[in-house]
Amino acid sequence: MSAEPPVPETRVLAIASHIWDIFEGLKQSYLDNFDMMLSGYVPGAAAVQAVGRIAEELRNRKMANPGDFFWVLDPVMGDNGKLYVADDVAPAYKKLLSHADLILPNQFEAELLSGVKIENMETLERAIQVLHEQFQVPHIVITSVSLSHPNHPPSSLSVIGSSRTSRGQARTFKIVFPSIDCYFSGTGDMFGALMVVRMREAVTNAPDAATLLQRRAWLSDDSVDAIDLPLARAAEKVLASMHEVLTKTCDGLEVQMQAAEATLDRHGVTGDAERAKALHLLKSGAAELRLPRNVNSLRSPTVSFHAVKMQE
Fold this sequence. Notes:
By secondary structure, the protein is an alpha/beta fold. It has a single domain, classed as UDP-N-acetylmuramoyl-L-alanine:D-glutamate ligase (3-Layer(aba) Sandwich). The protein has helices at 16-28, 45-61, 89-96, 107-114, 121-133, 187-205, 209-212, 230-266, 272-286, 295-299; strands spanning 36-39, 70-73, 78-79, 82-83, 102-103, 139-145, 156-163, 172-178, 308-309. Strand 3 (78-79) and strand 4 (82-83) form a beta hairpin. Helix 1 (16-28) packs parallel to helix 2, helix 2 (45-61) packs parallel to helix 3 and helix 8 runs antiparallel to helix 9. The chain is globular, with a radius of gyration of 20 Å.
């Protein structure tokens, strides 16, 4: 359930009761003492609600120390104007937003959740403000933003982040980075997983770490500037790792596909339909991110893309 399957056939459908049963099994085995939670793709509204119940139970256990639980919610619903979940999923996510600490929507998902049509940087900032003010979301990172800007180089993307102030006002920053013309599988899952690690690290390394770690959602004082937020530091490191791993994955993709073509030739796979299906599956496999062989890019990436204020 971590991603939309690239293969044309599936065998198992996970439903809300299964998700809750897994959590109940963890509780029975005393394996449920979590201080962070990451949720991603779930297939329907009932399953989204089940994930929300789990987060609510975990948070309620930490009421005496609100900073002891942090929920990163990736509201996976669609991309490029197209939904790939049921229509009732977006309303289900909206009901959970105020319970999450950090959300990671893409541009399309931010539109669905905020109700703001994002056409430029100004409307994007408006969408962020709605999510902060109306839905009480503490931290927001909008991924894969493709809006043009005079100061952005061609063929670039940006990540837009914000941590709200005590009065619910956005503190927005952006990180611009070059896009890579390649097909990948698993980038959203990698981004979310790295944000969990790097957000915890950035808060722990902050000058006021002792105070932050006691607060719900680890929210910085209002005096902290947008580009100095732990969220900005975390996003910089995440993008550094992402860029290194994606570049190395793309570099090896062409070689792998050439080898795949040769393998099909040796096995006599010549029919158009059969060959097209085989190539699709082989390309999906080749596009899986090369994580184990690039573990140093996860541990110690070179940070080349830095947070700047939205006006820059």
